[in-house]
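ASSEMBLY PREDICTION REQUEST
Request ID: AP-0331
Submitted by: J.K., bench scientist
Number of chains: two
Total residues: 786
Priority: normal
Notes: Please return the full assembly, not individual chains.
Input sequences:
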Amino acid sequence: MIENPMISFPLLILFLPLLSFLILIFFGKRLPRQGDWVAVGSIVFTFLLAVYLFVQMLMNYNPDFSNSASISWIDLGAFKIDLGILVDNLTIVMLLIVTLVSSCTHIFSLEYMKGDIRYHRYYAYLGLFTFSMNGIVLADNLISMYMSWELVGVSSYLLIGHWFEKDSAANASKKAFLTNRVGDIGFFIGIMLLYSAVGAFAFSPIFESISTGESIAGATLTIAGLGIFMGAVGKSSQFPLHIWLPDAMEGPTPVSALMHAATMVAAGVYMCVRLFPIFTPGALTVIAYIGAITAILAAITAITQNDIKKVLAYSTVSQLGFMILAVGTGVYTAAFFHLLTHAMFKANLFYCSGSVIHSMHHALHEAHDHDTDPQDMRNMGGFKEKMPITYYSMLISTLAIAGVPLFSGFLSKDAILAGTLAFAQHHPEHFLLPLFGFSAAAITAFYMFRLIFMTFHGKPSMKSIFKDIHESPTAMTGPIVLLGTLSFFIFYTLPSNFNPIKDKGWFTDLIVPRNSSVPGSLTANEIAEYAHHAHYLAMGLSIAVASIGILLAVLMYQTKTLSAKNISARFGFLYDWSLNKFYFDENYNRFLYQPFMRLANTISWIDWEFYDKYFINGFGRLTKLFSNASGKFDYDGIDQGLVDGFGRFSGIAGKVLRNIQTGRLQNYLLFVVAGILVIIIAQAF
Amino acid sequence: MNNIDSYLFISSMLFCLGLFGVITRRNAIAVLMGVELILNAANINFVAFSKFNGMNLDGHIFGLLVIVLAAAEAAVALAIIINIYNNMNTINVDEAAELKR
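STATUS: Completed
Returned structure:
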């Protein structure tokens, strides 16, 4: 088993980052260069292993390829947990994404995090994160997936709070962790529901058991599916738990690129794709609506944000909404396709923003300006000439995310929108789903070009620092160029297709949708058939909406034909809502946290003032009283009365009895005679 | 004189007199005399039961043995009394209350 490279290589990919984490966390400080070469070396090696697996996959070109291995972890007879890994095409592609973006992040951080006070810990945590993310990807059962899921949450917490001296970072890490917990509770409930019905944690027995329809079906299965989906809502930052992701931007920018854009937040989507066969049509409808609402809300919010990372954060939430929407409408391979392309261009967008922020930071530092926010786009502008590599790479990724043909995002987004449109064509009552989807696509194009124009075009808004803005060093531009290149469509349509508007390629050949296990669901073929029919309409529409979005952005921010101010004034409340992120945090605070705090305070008051003071202390006082009484009884009654009384009685009796011991023989004789007489008389009767 | 009752009556009278003497007398010699009376009361009993209840000569032999025993006892007892007198200069049994100490 272990000799098979399809098993041993993934295991190496899984455990090498863990090894790097252990080395760095214990010895990192003492190693030369604080041990960053350990982390970078191990992650690049795992990336090469992943490339090997990927090449193997392309050479096999077998859509049904699957390999698994497991060891028994807990065996209590009736209760068994096996830990295992499952390696199929989905896993290999995901491993490639994780290790590629992780490698880029490691290299990018060499420059970005230079001189950081906790440099070695930063790399250690990156290793821990990569280990746990690979754990999710490789899991062949719900328990090991859940364990890795939680580990990912921990490493996310540690990395968001890397600069924990800043209150905002510390709070953001707590918020991210706790919000994720809410979703994870649902995930765990779902796992337990499935386990209690099926009696197994591994995926394949669960799928088989569901397809028979005997162990679990109907409403229970829907609830189990929604419970598991709740985990994805938390981790993939879906409405209504999306509030943590924008705050998570408090972490270092490479971390945002790796975790809060490309891989960790995609874990929820990956899990939904992996577990797609368990979702009932009812559960899928809920999933689709959650995704659609997330996509449109986050897109609207992104329009008015001025922090460059916040725009990208909301854009990520919106794109994740797209993926979840695709899962909900049944075209889950499209969701995974979008995950793949999105990981590349969104990670790149974050690196580019990191490059800009890095440069801003230095320029502000040179100017001794410590009050200006280096992330605020209103302080940028005109960086195009100063940072050409960053600009062109970011432009390519922006074209990709906006869904312009020739770029990767077009293919995947188009597949999703076609699936959504097909779903609505067959279920006209769900017309809102494609409506939200296409609107979000249009808005995406708009706010992304707004970002480009505000940052790189126009006149510099802060002339004082403009002279110090310069291109970032090679360690940072390298990943930017690499990932920017990967935003072209051609990498996803090889080897057979060179048509930029057709998504056929290695991906669609090797990652094929499977039928749902739930009896009565549409088969994968039917879904693909419907999506195929909607394909050209969806393509036309998506090109149209992307053009509208880009055109609006050009008019408002480049040529300034339309005044952004006037339009925002006209929209009034909508602008206000968008700027304030739909008041989610405020409302959660008012309607959730505050009442909860009040409840907690009340309970603590009752606990302290009433329960503690009267019940617990009263109990103590009562015990004291009782023991006093008992002590008194013991001392006065038992000790003094009974025990000492016994002694006193013996003394008195002895004193009385000694009087008959006269010492006179004749007295004794008299007693003897009297005794004999008594006996004789007693005998007589 | 053909009736056992009269013998027993005399022997019990003798026993009671002897007992009375033993209990009431202060003089050790008198106490010893009381003991002799008790022994003789027992002798009368032996002889009487021997005569009326077909014990043949057994009772007489026991009587003779008791007389010998009484003589020996008297010798021992008188020796004790002389020793007491030598030690305490008295033969009053009340004063010889060494047991009480």
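REVIEWER COMMENTS: The two ends of chain B are 52 Å apart (CA to CA).
SIGN-OFF: pending second reviewer
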